[in-house]
Amino acid sequence: MSKINNSGIQIGIIGPKALVDQTSDTLKSFPNFNPIFRIIESSDHLPEIVTEIMNIVEVLLFTEFQMYKIAKQKLSFSIPVHYVPLMGTGLYRTLFLIKARSELKRLSIDTIEKKYVEQILVELGESKCELIPYNSSFNEVDEIVSFHLENYQRHESVALSGIQEVSDRLTMLKVPHQLVTPTQQDMIVTLERALLSTRTRQNKESQIVFGLINIDQFRRKAEKYSSEHDVQLLKLKIQQMLLDYTKQLDGHFINLGGEEYSFITTRGIFERETRGYKYIPLLQDMKNQLDITISLGVGFGQTAAEAGSHARLALRQSKELGGNVCYIVREDRSVLGPVDVTTYTQYERYELAITDPHLLDKAEKAGMSATYMTMLMARVARHKKIEYTAQELADTLKITTRSAHRILLKWMDADLVNIVGEEKVSHKGRPRRIYQLSFIADELLNL
Question: β-pairing, 59-62 with 9-15?
């Protein structure tokens, strides 16, 4: 299982399938990373696999501490290496699960620090629980399984393990145990540390970031005020909020006149304040406090001119989507977005513009810009599906069913979509048409 991309930071993910799959889901909120996965259920061939992947990635992440420990003993690393620690919310969840089904009298533990387990047991009101840690220098799975089995037979202890292979063996032996796995929050913290340790990230720390902010439909909003004085007060409130946000970014704020503003900061600060492009509360704050929405375009670049140009292109993406969103155009002219205003999200990643002349012509016939069509293609491609009802397409594109019908009619007029069937509904009503988006079938296979 692997994925290699030419842009972004290559990160190697090594571990058992269940944890690799969990990491893969978490990585969807880290658009800077291009992961290369290696699934290992046993540590037998670990050194060879690690050596192979270490030559093609910039940072390594082990999903299990045991594998990290073995690799560290046998290999010398020339790149940053991280593992997901089992001492946070994942450990708390595991102990709570054991407590819910049995008394916590004795626990045999491996790969987990005794002091962390003791702290959580105190919080759970189980400070009298006896802990039996695995202290041997031997890291062989057979030795660890024998340790847990012996303690179960002698003391009826419950095993607490951070190793998938050990858990599988204990299941076969019918030894009561609980596998400690990290939560998504544990994964996020580790991935953020891995990102900060990469050379690419460090080199881009001082890269220029240019932001453009446009007030959505400001004239319509201003018409609701009875006097020019009230309109000017609104502008002052808007500017104050934007100044406060720019201050958080340690940036420079500029009023460009009209309904447009800009800010300049550095990429390192912007990434930290947005939690890796995952959180921009400014959009929601504007809506909640002033009942207005803004479109935000952010550009990266090696020069101020390049960053400014990319910010203008990003702002255009936000405006075409209807506002109240943020898009980012990076230095390689790839697009990230939309950035969620309140929560972690999955990102679309696509090239800035369609270059295929035939597809450009189709976009023109459909009555929409090429960049907007590219964005829609990226969303549909993420679901690996080209047949939709209008309702399904609306859910995929996060638009209203009415808008989906309007888009489908445009595409039908331009001979971009075909009706391939009907979906019968259980309740009374007309059957729903099923549309095949044939115009992106070939492109979808390449994305």
Answer: parallel
